[in-house]
Amino acid sequence: MRKALKSLLAIALSGFLFSAASYAQVAGDRSWFPLPEASDRAAWRELLGGKSEELIRRGESQLSYEWKVIPATAYLEFERTGDRNSMQDRQNANRKAMIDLLLAELAEGRGRFIDQLLNGCWLATEQTSWVLSAHQGRQKSGRALPDSRERVIDLGSGRYASILALAHHFFHENFDAIDPSVSNAIEAAIKRNILDPFLDPKMDKANWWLGFTRTKPEDVVNNWNPWCNTEVLLCFLLMEKDQSRLDAAIDKSVRSIAEYTSYIPQDGACEEGPSYWGEGVGKYCEWLTLRKLACGQDGLHDPLFARMVGYISRSCIGNGYVVNFADAAARGSADPELIWRCALGCGSREVRDYALYCLWNGKEFREPKVRNNDALRACMDIYNYKCMRAAVDSLNAEVATRGAGPVLAGLRALVPAATWYPETEVCFMGNGNGWFLGAKGGHNNESHNHNDVGSCVLYIDNIPVLCDAGVGTYTRQTFGTERYDIWTMQSDWHNLPMINGSSQIHGREFRSRKAVCSPEKGEFSLNLEGAYMEAAYCREWRRIYKLGKESLTISDEGLLTKRVAADTLNFLVKAKVLTPGEDYRGRTLRKGELILLCDGGLAVKMTFSPQMDVQLEQMSLEDKKLSKVWGPVLSRIRLSCSKGTRPDYRVRFSL
Description:
17 helices
C-alpha cells in the first residue's frame, strides 16, 4: 500500500495524470520532429553552418566500411569467458558507421551516402535480435544467443532501433526509389523487435526496466528505464501507424517513467554517479522532450527534474575529476552538449554555465560536438548547435579581453560551497581554499552498488588524495553472483574501516544510520554499524568528517560488544607514500605520520595515533578502464593495531 501511494504521489507531482486522449499525437504524423526534412537544403545549411564539413568527412570515412556480421560464437563468448565485447564491439562499430552516414547525408544532401547507409540498415533488419549478449539472459532460455521465439528489449536494441527509425524518417523516399523492400524490412524489424514486445504484457517481466514487476525492495529501477523508454517512444512516434497502438504505447511509457521517478531519490542525486547521469537524467530529459514535442505535455520544469539536473554541476570537482561512487568513473561525466540541453529545459543558469565550463580545453572553449554513438542525441546536438556555438564564441571573446581565470571562475560562481542530499545521504563540500570532500552514507544495494557506505573522496586543488577506484571493464562477473569478489566492489578497498576484522557486505538492509550534514561546521557524520555483519559485534560505529580551512580530519568512534580481531582503517590513494623511518626534506618521518606525494608535486601530511601500525599495499591496474583514470597503480594504506589495544582512531590530512 505504501509503495502504491508513493508511486501515485510521484505521478501526480510530475504532471503525468492525463488521459490518452490528451496525448494529441496522431499516428503517422511526423511534423512534430524538430529537425527539417532531408530535402530542405536551405534549412540544413542554416542549421549546421560550418559543422557540415566535419560531418561529411566522418561519413566519407565510412564509405568503405565493411559491415560486421556477428557470429554465434561472439554471443557465446559471454557465456564461455565472460567477455561481452566480442559481440558488443561489432554492433557498436556498425551503429557508429550508420550514424556517421546518416549525419553526412543530412549535411550534404546529394545521395552520396545512401547506398552505404542502406547496407547498414539492411544488415540490421536481418539480425535475429539487437539485444547485447550480456543482456540476453532475460530470455526464458537464459542463454546468450538470441532466441527468435522471444523478443526482449534492452539498451542495445533500443539504441539500434532508433537509428533505423531515424534513417527511415529522413530517407525512406530514397530507399523506396531504390527498392521499397528496404523500408518494408525496416518497418517489420522495428515492429518485431521493439513495438510488439513493448505492448505485450507477457514480456513485462523480461523487460524488467519497465518497473512493473518489482516485488522486493532490492528490485531497482535505474537508468535502463528512461534510456529504453526514450528509444521505444521515439520508435512508436516515428513508425507506428495504428492510432490505438500508439495511444497504448504512450500510456505505457508514461506509467513506466512514473515508476522511475517514484523510485529514484527525490533529492535529485544520481546514486549511480556522474558517469551514469547522461544515461539516467539525460535520457529522462530526452523522454520529456519527445513528450513535449509530440504530445504537448511539458514536464521539463518539474522541480524534481531541476534537482536531478543540478546534481551534475555539484558533483564536479575540477580538472576533469568528478565525485565517483559505485560504478562511476572519477574522470568524465555526461557530454557538455547534453548538459546544456538539460539546463535549458529546466532553466538552470548554474548548469548551463557548467556545460560551457566543460568545453574548456586548456586554451579556449571548444566548439560543441555532434556525437555519433546515439542517433537521437546526435539530432538534438544538431538542433542546439548554433545556440551553444554562439555562447562559446562569446566566451572566447571574453577570454581574449579578461583572461581565462576570471571567465572560468565566473562559470562556477553559482555553485554553493556545500550540497547535501538527505535521502541519498551524499554530501559535496568545499572549504573555499581548494579542498573538496565528497562523502556518502546510503545502503549497499544501490544501483551499480559497491560496498561503500561511509566512504569518501578528497581532492586538493583538483588533485586526488583519497580515491574511489570505480570499476573495471564490464564482464559477466561484474553483474553476476561473483560481483563482490571483485576488489573494486569491496569495502576494504574504499576509504573505510574493517571493524573487528569484518568488512561490509551487500544488501539493502546494510546501511548507515543517523547521517547528518552540517555545512556551516564543515561536518558530515553517520553511524556505520548497520553496514556490517553481526560478526563485527558492533553496537555503534560513528564516523565524523571535519573539513577545515587547511585540513580534513576523519574520526572513528566505535563500541563493540565483543572483541575478536583488530580494527583496520583503509585509505586508497593515488600517491607515492613515504612511511615512518623514511626521509622527507631532510627529516626522518616518525611513527604516526606519512607523506603522500600526489600528482602535480602536491605533498600531503597524514597523521594518526603512533600506536597504529602501517601496512602499504599496491594494486596494479592492468584493466585499461581503471589505468586510463589512475595510471598503472593505486596504493592502499592500512592502519591497524593489535587486538588488545584501542588507540584514538583519528586521522588528519594537512599540507
